[in-house]
Specification:
Bound molecules: 2-oxoglutaric acid
Shape: globular
Oligomer: single chain
Radius of gyration: 18 Å
Distance between the termini: 43 Å
Number of strands: 12
CATH superfamily: q2cbj1_9rhob like domain
Length: about 270
Amino acid sequence: MKIPVLDSSDSSKNIINCLEEFGCLVIENAASSNLVENFKKDLAPAMELSPPQEDNPDEFYPGNTRRMGGLVGLSESAGQLAVHKTSKEICDYFLTPNSNCGYQLHVSVALEVGPGARKQILHREEDTFPFFKEPRPNLIVASMWAISEFRKDNGGTLLVPGSHKWDKERVPTDEEIFSAEMPKGSVLYWLGGTLHGAGENISSDWRYGAILTYSLGWLRQEENQYLNVPSEIAKDLPKEVSELVGYRAYKGLGFSMHPDHFFMQEEDDMF
Ligand SMILES: O=C(O)CCC(=O)C(=O)O
């Protein structure tokens, strides 16, 4: 079972069926090179401030990597990626039925894997929510936008297709683990129950991805969006983007009386 590769011209029905079956897939030609280059330019000053750390084999995050969060506050292009049509269709299908308050941005991190970086421990995005008996509803959808080319030798994300349907105790064999290989401008999606992790980088170039994950609106976000995208920045974002970050109320949850962010539930939105 390999990672399926589709194209942005494929129908949403195909994309959803494939994701349902394999738990992951790559879509090529999803973002224009302008969008990718603008993202990279916007993030450059922040990435400079995030020097690669030395590796500590006991740490979850490998060394020799650069990471920066709060993407939609740093780059208009990141906001455009966050509300991309295909991501919305996928989230509407996999998340909306499990939530009375929609979905939200869960993590937004620019992630460069440098030469010599070791591979990351395989994990599931939903490992942090162990409170549901299997099979559980989908809680999280993840995307990784290829800001550079992703290859096996430069740390392309490792995935175990089909593992979203596995018993939690099952350990993948080497033959069941695949690297996501994709040209710049592609996007990789996986479900919250799919085993994955960054690959090792044995090349001489940096692998650059933007990870944007989405969770059910009633869950605690993994990244503290309100600190990483503070009020004074969020107020100038497109409404759709600030709402995705969490600046909105729905069914009485998350109301605010902040002068820049006044939102209460509508009468007919209550129950
Ligand atoms: O960098 C990658 O390819 C995967 C990143 C990841 O899974 C994580 O940061 O937890």
